[in-house]
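Regression test case RT-17, inverse folding.

Input:
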């Protein structure tokens, strides 16, 4: 099950469930559209993989399977 991380790992902007501009790599590293496309040029800085749009968890399942609250920021 996806963690649905709550923020961009580069700029720390909020990425709530349903955000259409949230991108993830195969390891669930999470970035906003601006950082994924422009800062990282489509390549995850952590693993070197590509990005895909993060799926949206249906609202009816959010109570049972909530979004993560742990914020992750890249080490610079």
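Golden output:
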């Amino acid at each position: 099950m996806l963690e649905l991380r709550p923020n961009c790992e580069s700029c720390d902007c909020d990425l709530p469930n349903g955000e259409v501009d949230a991108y993830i790599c195969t390891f669930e590293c999470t970035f906003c559209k601006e950082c994924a496309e422009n800062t990282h040029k489509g390549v995850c800085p952590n693993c070197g993989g590509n990005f895909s749009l993060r799926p949206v968890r249906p609202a009816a399942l959010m109570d049972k399977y909530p979004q993560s609250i742990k914020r992750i920021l890249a080490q610079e």
